[in-house]
Specification:
- The chain is mainly α.
- 65% of the residues lie in helices and 0% in strands.
- It contains 19 helices and no strands.
- Helix 4 packs across helix 8 and helix 6 runs antiparallel to helix 7.
- The longest helix has 35 residues.
- The protein is globular.
- The N terminus is likely disordered.
- The structure holds protoporphyrin IX containing FE and copper (II) ion.
- The site of protoporphyrin IX containing FE (HEM) has 23 residues, from helix 3, helix 4, helix 14 and helix 16.
Length: 619
Amino acid sequence: MATTVLDPTHAHAAKRSAVVEWLTTVDHKKIGILYGASAFIFFLIGGLEALIIRTQLMKPDNTLVSPEMYNQLFTMHGTTMIFLAVMPLSAMFFNFFVPLLIGARDVAFPRLNAMSFWVFLLGGLFLNASFLMGAAPNGGWFGYAPLSSRQFAGGLNMDFWVIGLQILGIASLAAGVNFFTTILNMRAPGMTLMRMPMFVWMTLITQILVLLSFPVITVALIMLMADRTFGSSFFSWAGGGDPMLWQHLFWVFGHPEVYILILPAFGIISEILPVFSRKPLFGYSAMVFSGAFIAFLGFGVWSHHMFSTGMGPLADSFFSLMTMLIAIPTGVKIFNWIGTIWGGSVQLKTPMWFALGFIAMFIIGGLSGVMHSVAPADLQQTDSYFVVAHFHYVLFGGSIFALTAGGYYWWPKMFGRMLDEKLGMTHFWLMLVGFNLTFFPMHFAGLLGMPRRIYTYPAGLGFELYNMMATAGAFLLGISFLVFIVNVIKTWRGPANAPADPWGGATLEWAIPSPPQEFNFPKLITVHEKDALWQMKREAGVSRLPEPDLVSGKGIHMPGPSWWPLVVAFGILIFFIGFMMKDPWAFPFRPVNILGFAITTFGIFKWAYEAPDAHAPQH
Ligand code: HEM
Ligand SMILES: [Cu+2]
């Protein structure tokens, strides 16, 4: 190793306390870690809720939880898994890896990035605080109005949900703007759109989905909030509104949301398979276009969630057909993944196992999805455990398997430590067996007629065995993640041992030290082909480039830390909490809303006038 010069930014950081550093950071990598750590904790909470649900359903006529508690548990479980676990786990990878993959020093708007994290965290804590008040949301993760209207849900439960989602939507939209701009504007010289790594492509498409679908749920939530808070009647017949309107608005958002959860997973898998097959991704441009096509079709199928509402044969046929069409680009992806592995020299490391598990589980979930797209079949299956089985194959079998694959793949780069392979394999096999044991039997329970969202069932209907299996499987799943936690603790105690490029990677993040320095790339790299790092290695005639040294960041300007994103996030939280007060003339003039608004405005003002590198180290 050549001379190692101390990084002056680190010397500076030592002067401030670690807590302050994390609270004020605008470094995309630190924000990524904050996203990951918070999302993982929410994932454990959502998992705990699932385990309570499963324990309640373990045997007929069980009385572990009350029906009211059960409603809160499945609502919070669904809401937590979607908005507080899977989306922010993807956001961890966007934050940490998109700038590295495109050879950039940072995201386009670093302080906006910090703000979206704090808004997300406060929104998530706010949602969970509902448990402490004994008033957790209880109307399902889709909050169907008028069930969620003031009339039928008078307490604070659904206020927590409406307001929590409204807050989380702000975080998603801010992140959407940020990553959309980052990907379009911050790529390294020579990295054309068609040379971008597939994960970056899928991130870009995901952000487009966020930017187009979140405004719809925002508007719907404002209408529902108005119904609840001010007594308007968008969603009730009595006042001239229409309950179907909520379902349309919700699913115009909700179906694309499913792709917001799954497209990043596609991207992760498309990074891992080539590296562990030692072959470029098969059909790169077909992968790009099929991703875009899936996103486009995703906006045309929302009403397949509403076949049972009596929309009429024409609408049912249209949405059936559109839904079936999605199988085509999805099939293209699956064939291309298999084509990537085909004939490669496959290396079965932990990330690869999880990637293969993803493909297998996602195929099962995809097939039962096609089954639902047939409207008459859906009429039988809808609101039964068949649907619960289906969407967990897609969301857990798809998203969580892929996110876990990505976790094992990128862990060395994030933390400079190799995770233990044996524990990784144990995690994989427990998860694969536990997952299938949990969710496969639910298909049968559903076909036998077990409805979803029931807190118990009588004996003698043939549900017992399937429920017993599902509950056993759920505990196995829980244990599999304990193994992951053991792995993290064990390797954390060991020395930082990860080389820059442990897997023989194809993309730019592996060209710099693990973990990367604050400025990522001492010199920006010019890209000539896709799989830029493989091309550099080929040109140098080596299979691994020499280990990069830590270098001084002298002369490289990075944005300084700031308190204002956190202040703005607090202001937003307080502003929205104000809407829990249902009396529109709450004296004097909705003070909580006004306070929140004032804090937000003050924060934005200070933010705007703070020099971008006010607290940055002096060089
Ligand atoms: C630890 C593994 C998991 C288990 C054991 C589990 C179990 C369950 C069960 C039994 C239900 C049905 C509740 C009912 O209908 O009465 C349910 C609902 C749900 N789950 Fe999971 N789940 C798990 C992970 C996930 C993940 C990773 C996601 C996705 C992102 C997810 C999303 C949902 C959603 C959206 C609902 C519907 C909630 C509603 O009806 O409002 N689950 N889960
Ligand atoms: Cu859908």
